[in-house]
């Protein structure tokens, strides 16, 4: 039995155990900040740990043709259903009554929307296959030549809140080891800077120390490769004719040193889970293998008594300096009273973006430290360099070694001058130890293909886990306001909790485009348990409807500029933002309402068949199982109430105008307890489906009975696999306790006695800074007393 203690959850008090963590909406870490050991592997977890290839295999002609046949089959099957079933039933039953007519219309609407989403999946998939077949990787030599003597810089921004230090460390190292000439990595810590909890403070201090530790670790290799490069340039510029064999041997020695340094670091790393394994094998050893490939080529050149030219040798030396010369720092916006403290990732990024390119003087006030533009004579200043590009990277994500090189090269290629954002939609870490993490990862890999295909039709959306952004594009969409006398610059809107989707539309309104790079160069963690998955998916379901009006505005603007938005792009964008709404309500209707069996038809199944066959094929290509289509169906069933809650939150925000709190996904290794309602709802789905089976069996509606039985089996299997029977009981028990517990009312505080202060006791700084903040209250009090006196 785990030890239990009291703790807050969702604004109320409840039990918290050593194994179970209940989080407030603004939390995203363990209650005590401690991480667990490696998670125990479940039966049915992922056995494969090696990731997929960086470059997508070129699809065969047969695969592309079958995809086109699938699109055509879906359209024809839907048309056939409308003609042979819906219209036929309405014609053959003219006196069936209003109820049958309403059922027919509503069933047609549900089937049509679900078929439309399946059609958009097949369309985007075809776009992805086309791009994968046409993609040709830029040779490494061309990248080295393009970035040799390169003068533009990139700043990597890693927003972090209550993360485990080890998670942040892996992300930072994957950014630091990017091969880029001018690279700055900034960790944007959003934790309260002075926590009272000693465990939280210990975790925060460990995270703060990461930048210094990484900088110190890089000193030795950076000094060596910088010196080697400088010596080569002096020999080339000042000395006589260089000896090619000697120069190649010297270059081999430097690459040997760099590879051995990375391999030594990999040997010292602690590998506790599949994410640690990825960091060691793909981030550290992957770069080391790249360097050893160069060693092999140079050794072969030496053996053949040949050598690269002097310029190529200089490029290879420069490559080593790109690896080890990153600048690493930490920034905490909540230390400054003049910056926005809104509790979301977007404003954390906006706070730093607003400072870039400026020099700021910290000034102490009664409210804390504020940043003001620095004057010429100011000594203590905060200088924030500006760069041409900004890379945003979630603290649970990792990049492969040449992410920055290849994506910036794309932005600087002819024809891409108006591309504002480029990214590689993230893939999942392989080797997931839990069933739910494996299936969540499978859906992530499917989404990667979908996003790649949407670029084919100009319908790219920014996916916030990672992206390279032109700073100039952000300046085009910035909104400036004044809060408390200080300027607040909002580049990335925080009106919704899917800020990346809204920013995509904002950029489109200003004439910018977005593009996905057709390779796998980024990976991100998927929730390891049902509780953390609830937090993530509820956030994903919230906000798409609120952004649709901006899309219509973009369409009108483009028409006025004689650059109309293509119809396919509109359909894909609307499906991306709104499909979770109609899919959730449609599935709810199919589960709950006893539709007339005369409306069922094999053509409905035929219209959906290409979608499931294509998804199964994509899953198999991504290293998963074809049968995972059934597991994903059950996965979506247990997430149905979560998605509905997110949609209802969007409608609530649309009606009230209140901003929905940003709920971050917990990045922890302990299990996160789910709200009792989201655990109970899947059981109700199973119970109602079984009731539907019995009722339709009695009536002889075999089609409805079979569909309900299928749902009951899939949902029951998903509960067992993804939530767990024991965990379900614990979570519902805790939910009941939280509902029953009422915090004792505190006695009303008496007004403080007014005690005259001596001059030595007066807070003169607050008086000078704020003035008398009681003035309006005192005036209201005097007016109230006058009114009462006049009425007597």
Automatic annotation (TrEMBL):
Glycosyltransferase 2-like domain: residues covered? 389-614
Q: Where is this region: Disordered?
A: 26-45
Q: Which Gene3D superfamilies match?
A: Spore Coat Polysaccharide Biosynthesis Protein SpsA, Chain A
List membrane-spanning regions.
65-84, 104-124, 570-593, 599-617, 629-648, 676-694, 706-725
Domain of life, source organism: Bacteria
Q: Which UniProt keywords apply?
A: Glycosyltransferase, Membrane, Transferase, Transmembrane, Transmembrane helix
Its localization reads: Membrane
* Signal peptide as annotated in the record: none
Membrane topology designation: Multi-pass membrane protein
Pfam families in the cross-refs: Glyco_trans_2_3
Just give the chief location class: membrane
Q: What PANTHER family does the record tag this protein with?
A: CELLULOSE SYNTHASE CATALYTIC SUBUNIT A [UDP-FORMING]
**Record's protein name:** Glycosyltransferase family 2 protein
Species per Swiss-Prot/TrEMBL record = Arthrobacter gyeryongensis
Species lineage, top-down?
Bacteria, Bacillati, Actinomycetota, Actinomycetes, Micrococcales
């Amino acid at each position: 039995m785990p030890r239990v203690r009291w703790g807050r959850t969702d604004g109320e008090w409840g039990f918290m155990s050593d194994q179970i963590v209940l989080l407030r909406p603004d939390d995203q870490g363990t209650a005590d900040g401690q991480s667990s050991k490696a998670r125990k592997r479940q039966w049915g977890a992922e056995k494969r740990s090696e990731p997929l290839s960086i470059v997508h295999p070129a699809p065969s002609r047969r695969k592309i043709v079958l995809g086109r046949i699938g699109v055509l089959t879906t359209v024809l099957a839907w048309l056939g259903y409308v003609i042979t079933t819906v219209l036929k039933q309405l014609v053959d039953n003219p006196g069936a009554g209003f109820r049958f007519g309403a059922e027919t219309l509503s069933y047609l609407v549900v089937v049509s929307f679900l078929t439309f989403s399946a059609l958009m999946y097949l369309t985007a998939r075809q776009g992805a296959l086309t791009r994968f077949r046409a993609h040709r990787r830029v040779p490494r030599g061309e990248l080295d030549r393009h970035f040799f003597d390169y003068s533009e810089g990139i700043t990597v921004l890693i927003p972090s809140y209550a993360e485990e230090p080890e998670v942040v460390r892996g992300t930072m190292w994957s950014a630091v080891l990017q091969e880029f000439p001018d690279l700055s990595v900034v960790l944007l810590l959003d934790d309260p800077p002075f926590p009272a909890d000693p465990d939280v403070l210990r975790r925060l201090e460990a995270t703060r120390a990461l930048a210094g530790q990484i900088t110190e670790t890089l000193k030795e290799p950076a000094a060596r490769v910088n010196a080697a490069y400088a010596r080569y340039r002096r020999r080339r510029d000042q000395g006589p004719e260089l000896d090619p064999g000697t120069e190649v041997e010297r270059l081999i020695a430097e690459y040997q040193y760099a590879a051995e340094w990375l391999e030594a670091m990999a040997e010292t790393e602690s590998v506790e889970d599949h994410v640690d394994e990825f960091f060691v094998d793909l981030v550290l050893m992957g770069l080391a293998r790249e360097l050893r490939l160069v060693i092999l080529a140079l050794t072969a050149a030496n053996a053949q008594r040949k050598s690269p030219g002097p310029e190529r040798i200089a490029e290879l030396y420069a490559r080593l300096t790109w690896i080890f010369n990153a600048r690493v720092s930490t920034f905490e916006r909540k230390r400054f009273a003049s910056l926005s403290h809104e509790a979301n990732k977007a404003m954390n990024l906006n706070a730093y973006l607003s400072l870039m390119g400026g020099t700021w003087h910290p000034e102490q006030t009664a409210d804390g430290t504020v940043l003001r533009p620095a004057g010429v004579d100011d000594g203590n200043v905060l200088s924030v360099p500006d760069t041409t590009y900004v890379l945003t990277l979630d603290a649970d994500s990792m990049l492969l070694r040449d992410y920055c090189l290849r994506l910036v090269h794309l932005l600087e290629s002819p024809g891409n001058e108006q591309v504002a954002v480029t990214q590689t939609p993230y893939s999942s870490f392989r080797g997931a130890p839990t069933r739910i993490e494996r299936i969540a990862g499978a859906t992530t890999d499917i989404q990667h293909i979908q996003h790649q295909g949407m670029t084919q039709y100009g319908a790219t959306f920014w996916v916030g886990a990672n992206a390279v952004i032109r700073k100039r594009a952000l300046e085009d969409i910035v909104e400036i306001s004044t809060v408390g006398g200080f300027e607040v610059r909002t580049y990335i809107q925080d009106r919704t909790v899917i800020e990346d989707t809204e920013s995509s539309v904002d950029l489109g309104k200003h004439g910018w485009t977005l593009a996905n790079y057709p390779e796998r160069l980024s990976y991100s963690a998927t929730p390891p348990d049902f509780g953390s998955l609830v937090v993530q998916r509820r956030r994903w379901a919230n906000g798409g409807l609120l952004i649709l009006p901006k899309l219509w505005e973009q369409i009108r603007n483009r028409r006025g500029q004689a650059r109309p938005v293509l119809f396919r792009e509109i359909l894909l964008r609307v499906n991306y933002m709104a499909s979770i709404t109609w899919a959730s309500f449609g599935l709810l209707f199919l589960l709950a309402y006893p539709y007339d069996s005369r409306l069922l038809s094999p053509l409905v199944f035929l219209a959906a068949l290409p979608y499931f066959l294509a998804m199964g094929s994509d899953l198999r290509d991504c290293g998963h199982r074809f049968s995972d289509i059934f597991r994903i169906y059950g996965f979506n069933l247990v997430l149905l109430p979560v998605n509905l809650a997110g949609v209802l939150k969007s409608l609530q925000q649309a009606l009230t105008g209140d901003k929905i709190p940003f709920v971050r996904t917990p990045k922890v290794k302990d299990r996160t307890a789910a709200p009792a309602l989201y655990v109970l709802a899947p059981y109700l789905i199973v119970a109602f489906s079984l009731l539907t089976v019995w009722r339709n069996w009695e009536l002889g509606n075999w089609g409805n009975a079979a569909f309900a039985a299928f749902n009951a089996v899939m949902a029951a299997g998903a509960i067992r696999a993804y939530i767990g029977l024991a965990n379900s009981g614990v979570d519902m028990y805790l939910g009941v306790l939280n509902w029953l517990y009422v915090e004792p009312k505190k006695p009303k505080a008496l007004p403080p006695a007014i005690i005259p202060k001596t001059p030595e006791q007066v807070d003169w700084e607050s008086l000078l800074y704020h003035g008398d903040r009681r003035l309006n209250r005192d005036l209201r009090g005097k007016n109230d007393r006058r009114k009462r006196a006049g009425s007597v």
